[in-house]
From TrEMBL:
Native source organism of the sequence: Parablautia intestinalis
DNA-binding annotation, residue ranges on this chain: 47-66
Assigned keywords, A-Z: DNA-binding
HTH tetR-type domain mapped to chain residues: 23-84
Matching Gene3D superfamilies: Tetracycline Repressor, domain 2
Name assigned to this protein: TetR/AcrR family transcriptional regulator
TM annotation in the entry: none
One Pfam short name: TetR_N
GO terms, molecular function: DNA binding
InterPro entries xref list: Homeodomain-like_sf (IPR009057), HTH-type_Tx_Regulator (IPR050624), HTH_TetR (IPR001647)
């Protein structure tokens, strides 16, 4: 793999891409990065010494697995998001309709503020021009089909909801995913406000988001069908 070019071969410790079975020291490194982030650390200013101290491993050992701190930090963000999104998708499979799936996503965001905060940090990192940003973009661009991030989960949800609407273009699907994602981002910000002390009614907000998402997708589906019938 091109992402972690330390001295040990990829198969010796497991890859963050595709294979979620990580070597203990790699996993400890990732957990250390996330823990430091949740404690308020600036990821761009983290040092290898701080990461390895938190992970309980030596710097020399860390360099057997990673070439630099950027690989540690980007790998940690990618792995945390990938694991939480794949777990979320498995949970969504149990829901029978779009409303239930949207509600499950929102409830998950309420319960897992670590992952919510991690998502925002990843978005922030992706928009700057740091070495960490470059490495994270590299991982996202090269992920396998089995590596699910939030956009991938939402795309699957949209495709399942649209059913046999094979006529949908990639632009149509992208629009619907972004429409849902924008609501989730707003709700994530809302959750962080709640954790800071602002406490509006969460249940009512969840219901409004679920209903509006369902209505938008249903309306889009109806308009598309009408257009297809007109063409026919």
């Amino acid at each position: 793999m091109i992402f972690f070019q330390g001295k040990r071969r990829d198969e010796e410790w497991g890859s963050v891409m595709g294979n979620t079975h990580l070597a203990p020291k790699v996993k400890a490194t990732y957990e250390a990065v996330i823990a430091l982030f949740m404690e308020g650390a600036d990821l761009n200013n983290l040092t290898v010494a701080e990461i390895t101290a938190k992970a309980g491993i030596g710097k020399g050992t860390a360099y057997e697995y990673f070439s630099n701190k950027e690989e540690m930090i980007a790998g940690a963000l990618f792995y945390e998001l990938k694991e939480s999104c794949e777990s979320l998708y498995e949970h969504l499979k149990k829901e029978k309709d779009l409303y239930g799936k949207m509600n499950a996503i929102l409830l998950s965001m309420e319960k897992k503020l670590t992952q919510t905060s991690c998502f925002f940090q990843a978005v922030h990192v992706m928009t700057d021009n740091s070495a960490i940003s470059s490495k994270l973009k590299e991982m996202v661009d090269s992920k396998t089909e089995n590596d699910l991030l939030l956009v991938d989960v939402l795309r699957k949800v949209v495709e399942e909801e649209m059913g046999c609407e094979d006529e949908l273009s990639e632009e149509d699907k992208a629009y619907l995913v972004m429409a849902v994602l924008s609501r989730l981002i707003c709700y994530a910000m809302y959750q962080l406000d709640i954790s800071s002390g602002i406490k509006p009614e969460r249940k009512a907000m969840r219901e409004m988001i679920c209903k509006s998402s369902c209505l938008e997708i249903e309306s889009f589906k109806t308009e598309k069908r009408a257009g297809w019938e007109f063409v026919i």
